[in-house]
Specification:
Layout (H helix, E strand, L loop, with lengths): L1 H5 L1 E5 L8 E5 L6 E10 L3 E7 L2 E6 L2 E4 L6 H6 L13 E6 L3 E7 L4 E5 L3 E15 L2 H9 L4 E3 H23 L3 H4 L3 H20 L1 E12 L2 H16 L2 H15 L3 H20 L29 E2 L1 H8 L3 H10 L5 E3 L2 E5 H9 L1
Parallel strand pairs: 1-3
Antiparallel strand pairs: 2-7, 2-11, 3-6, 4-5, 4-7, 8-10, 9-10, 10-12, 13-15, 14-15
Helix pairs in contact: 4-6, 8-9, 10-11
Length: 353
């Protein structure tokens, strides 16, 4: 009787002390399960019966006595019309339903994304996620299979590429610009969860409690372009920036930078003089909008700084006559390079003599 009794399984239970086992097939040692056997399922566990490759009954936490009433699906599969009295054989899988945290994911190769700002861009990403099993049958069928002891490291190898694929599809569906991806990791992970969970739940029977992006990077050449764009934004008003650079160059003194700065200052002064209406000597004209009085008239109107040609028109004489009195010193003037400039007050004083 002891021999016969030892051929049957009377108590089915599994104590998980590994902390990294997702599913475990109860070792029956080719023994049959006795009618009325006790099935013990602890918290964070689910038991799934499999008979001849078909899913039978599912049991949640608690202590269960295996009778016809408790295993209606298996009763139907075994064709027990009324009740079973003899021992039976079936595979018993324990599936852990607790939350598995800190699982790493990442792209082995860059993924291609269409971005509104950058066009087609290659992106690398990695991070962590927390998950738990919500559909034991689907999980055993699509992920764990018939593995006697399916552990977390096997799951990571199996699911890493699948998670990346789901992440890529979700990111493409969300149409989030790469610039925003790189600046809002936490917010983005929360936004992607509603897109990722329905897919992985329907495909693999698992659900993510959190999905975290730790880094999203683009190729070096794209990073350089982004840096240049940021630098341009930091400069702001280009005119003010040029003035600031010119001032710094003047402080540094001579040298290549100093010469360039002095040239820039000279151009700026020339532009300012043009804006004020002073024409070049070669033009032979007075300031824009200034009208000289008739010969011998008052010199009250017109610019304060005149060329010899302007002075000749104002005085009603030839330019050569004006040049003579300038050379003699009777009419005060200032020679800048090869060009003379005469103050209007000097002309008024000359006429009053």
């Amino acid at each position: 009787m002891d021999f016969i009794k030892g051929e049957f399984i009377e108590v089915i239970e599994w104590t998980d002390d590994s902390r990294d086992t997702l599913s475990f097939r109860f070792p029956d040692d080719d023994k049959a399960i006795k009618n009325g056997a006790q099935l013990i399922v602890r918290e964070s566990q689910v038991v799934q019966f499999v008979y001849l490759g078909e899913f039978g009954d599912t049991f949640g936490p608690g202590k269960h006595t295996l009778t016809t009433d408790n295993i209606p699906i298996l009763t139907k599969l075994k064709s027990w019309k009324y009740a079973f009295n003899s021992p039976f054989k079936a595979d018993v899988y324990y599936v852990t339903t607790r939350l598995f945290t800190g699982n790493k994911w990442g792209t082995a190769n860059p993924i291609m994304l269409r971005d509104d700002d950058l066009g087609i861009v290659r992106v690398r990403a990695f991070g962590t996620f927390d998950f738990h099993v919500v559909e034991p049958k689907l999980f055993l069928k699509e992920v764990a299979g018939s593995d006697q002891n399916f552990r977390l490291d096997e799951f990571s190898d199996t699911m890493r590429s699948r998670i990346v694929s789901v992440f890529t599809d979700a990111l493409a569906t969300a149409k989030i610009p790469v610039f925003d991806v790189a600046s809002r990791y936490t917010e983005l992970g929360e936004a992607l969860l509603p897109l990722i969970n329905p897919v992985i739940k329907a495909k693999y029977g698992i659900e993510m409690a959190s999905f975290i992006l730790e880094n999203v990077s683009v190729p070096p050449e794209v990073e350089q372009a982004i840096d240049k764009r940021s630098s341009m934004a930091a400069v702001g008003n280009l005119n003010d920036y040029v003035k600031f650079q010119m001032a710094q160059g003047m402080e540094k003194g001579a040298g290549a930078g100093g010469v360039a700065t002095e040239m820039a200052v000279g151009l700026a002064m020339a532009k300012q003089m043009m804006d004020q209406g002073i024409t070049s000597p070669s033009s032979g004209g007075a300031a824009a909008g200034a009208k000289g009085p008739p010969a011998g008239g008052s010199a009250a109107a017109g610019p304060d700084l005149l060329s010899p040609a302007d002075a000749a028109k104002l005085l009603g004489v030839s330019e050569a006559d004006v040049q003579v009195v300038l050379d003699s010193g009777e009419l005060p003037g200032k020679k800048i390079g090869t060009t003379w400039r005469i103050k209007r007050s000097a002309i008024d004083e000359y006429l009053s003599k």
